[in-house]
Structure formats: structure tokens, C-alpha cells
Design a protein that fits this description.
Blueprint (H helix, E strand, L loop, with lengths): L1 H60 L12 H12 L3 H7 L9 E2 L6 E2 L2 E8 L4 H14 L4 E3 L2 E4 L10 E4 L4 E3 L4 E6 L1 E5 L6 E3 L5 H10 L15 E4 L3 E4 L13 H7 L6 H21 L9 H7 L3
Parallel strand pairs: 3-8
Antiparallel strand pairs: 1-12, 2-3, 3-11, 4-7, 5-6, 9-10, 11-12
Length: 308
């Protein structure tokens, strides 16, 4: 009986040990599963946070209407920039004044200069359809004297006349030239501010820029009806553009690529309007630079100088 009881006790002890080992193994397995699951959750959270950060950063870069729906980037943007900034001189000469319905007006005042060079000052807004139209010939013309960087695309307001006109924005762009200085102020975006009565402010003009706008964008330089119009372009206090030089209607329904491509076809309505205006702008700048460079101030352009 003693040996039997001992064997029984030994058997019971072995079973208890085995049961304890199995329980420990199950606890270990459960703990490992929890750790794996927890690690997976951490990874998922990390991935989600990464996407959120990318979204936030992307949103930050799109705070300007430069990146509104329908704008173009990458290769497409590079192609449009190239087509717009390299319109062949022969094409421009063929168009001459084209169908530009207005051209720069002569004004008088102390020479407007910056960094020892004549200054061209543009003041406008991204919502403005007339600014949208005028930026195209400005980019074409200024590219004959220097180089733009970081040009962005945008559209005029969708609720103004000539809605959603495809255009450029000078906001965050830069321009370098040995012949002149170009200064630009995009005063508002194309997004309505809270309340819907005005557009969101973008860039604030300096006191000197506001003074030029107040002086030259008013009678006797412009009519009372046109006073305060934008775009406002001051060519060294020698010539002035107030309002668009042609109707934005010619650009309606066109994409950036379609407009840029048409600039190289002299017979197209877009080339006649945009290139023609660009030639008048070029003529104004040539008056400031002493007709330099010759590649820009061609005989066809010089002929337009006489009309200014």
C-alpha cells in the first residue's frame, strides 16, 4: 500500500508538472500573440501617421490657389512653361500687334528703378480674369529679356466673368535679367474669404507700390471708369497698362497646354491676342533698355514702339 500510494503520488506529481508546463506554454504563446498583435498595431498607427503627415504637408504647399484643382505640375507644367517662354521670334514678328485692343500708355514721373536697372511692376490678383489674360503675354514678353523660375498655374475665379480662365501666377516665382527688374504682387487668391464678400489676401504691396497704384491707376492717366483697375503694370514710370489688353474670352474653355501650343501658330486667335500684346509689352521694355537685347527689340518690335 505504501509503494502504491507513493507511485500514485508520483504519478499525480508528474501530471501536475505536465499540466503546469502546458499552462506556462499557453501563457507564453498568448503573451507572444499579444506582443505580435501590439507590434502590428504600432506599425499600422505609424503608417497612418505617416499618411497624415504627408497629407498635412501637401496641404501646406497648396495653401495658395496655385495648386487648385485643375492646375498642372511635373512634366506637363515644364512643357507648358517651355512653350510659353520660348515662342519663336519669327512667330512674334509675324503676329506684330495682332488683335491687341489696348496697349501701354505713356506716363511721366521719376524713373522707376531697382538694383540699378529699370523696374517693371505688376500688381494683380489670382481671382481676376483680366489679370489671367494679361499674365500670358507678360510671361512671353519678359522671357525675351530674362528667365522665370517656379512659375505656377492657377485659374481665375469660377464665379467672376470669364470664369476659371487658365493662367499663371507670379506668386512664389522669381525672375532674373541683366536688363531689368521685375516685381510682382498677387494681392489676393481666387478663393473667397469667410463671408464670401472678398477674396483671401495673398501678398501685401509695399507703401511705395501702393503709391504708384494710387497715382497712375487714376485720372488723368486712366478714365474715371477704369480707375483702380487691375492688372496694373508700370514700366519704369514711362508706360502703363491698366486692365487687360485683349478680351479673356479668347482663352475661355482652353487648357494651359492648348493656349501654350497655340502661341506658336501666328494665325490662331490666341496667338494674335497674346503674342500681339506681348509685342507691345516688349516694345515698352525696349524703350527702357535702350533697345537691348537685339534678339528682343527686333525691327517689328521697334515699329510698335512708335505707336506707344
Amino acid at each position: 500500500m505504501g509503494k502504491a500510494s507513493k507511485a500514485k503520488r508520483d504519478g499525480s506529481s508528474r501530471q501536475q508538472r505536465i499540466a503546469a508546463q502546458r499552462a506556462a506554454a499557453r501563457r507564453t504563446e498568448i503573451r507572444n500573440r499579444i506582443l505580435i498583435a501590439s507590434g502590428s498595431v504600432v506599425v499600422v498607427i505609424a503608417i497612418v501617421l505617416a499618411f497624415v503627415l504627408v497629407k498635412v504637408n501637401s496641404g501646406g504647399s497648396k495653401s495658395s490657389s496655385t495648386a487648385t484643382a485643375g492646375s498642372i505640375t511635373g512634366t506637363a507644367l515644364a512643357g507648358v512653361v517651355k512653350d510659353t517662354t520660348t515662342v519663336p521670334p519669327g512667330t512674334l514678328d509675324t503676329v506684330a500687334g495682332g488683335t491687341a485692343s489696348a496697349f501701354p500708355k505713356a506716363i511721366s514721373g521719376s524713373a522707376l528703378t531697382s538694383n540699378g536697372k529699370p523696374e517693371v511692376l505688376y500688381m494683380g490678383a489670382e481671382y481676376c480674369p483680366f489679370c489671367a489674360a494679361e499674365r500670358w503675354p507678360m510671361v512671353v514678353a519678359l522671357s525675351r529679356f530674362g528667365t522665370f523660375k517656379n512659375l505656377g498655374t492657377t485659374r481665375s475665379s469660377s464665379s467672376d466673368e470669364f470664369p476659371s480662365t487658365a493662367t499663371w501666377t507670379f506668386y512664389k516665382s522669381s525672375y532674373t535679367s541683366k536688363y531689368l527688374t521685375f516685381s510682382s504682387v498677387e494681392m489676393e487668391t481666387n478663393k473667397l474669404a469667410s463671408g464670401g464678400q472678398s477674396y483671401t489676401a495673398l501678398q501685401t504691396p509695399t507703401k511705395a507700390q501702393n503709391a504708384l497704384l494710387a497715382k497712375y491707376d487714376a485720372p488723368p492717366y486712366v478714365s474715371s471708369a477704369d480707375a483702380g483697375s487691375i492688372p496694373f503694370v508700370d514700366f519704369g514710370n514711362k508706360y502703363l497698362i491698366s486692365g487687360a489688353s485683349y478680351s479673356p474670352q479668347v482663352l475661355q474653355g482652353k487648357s494651359w497646354s492648348q493656349i501654350a501650343t497655340a502661341l506658336k501658330t501666328p494665325s490662331s486667335p490666341i496667338a494674335k491676342a497674346v503674342d500681339g500684346t506681348a509685342n507691345y509689352i516688349t516694345a515698352s521694355i525696349c524703350q527702357l533698355t535702350g533697345n537691348q537685347p537685339a534678339s528682343a527689340c527686333t525691327p517689328a518690335v521697334k515699329a510698335l514702339e512708335k505707336k506707344l
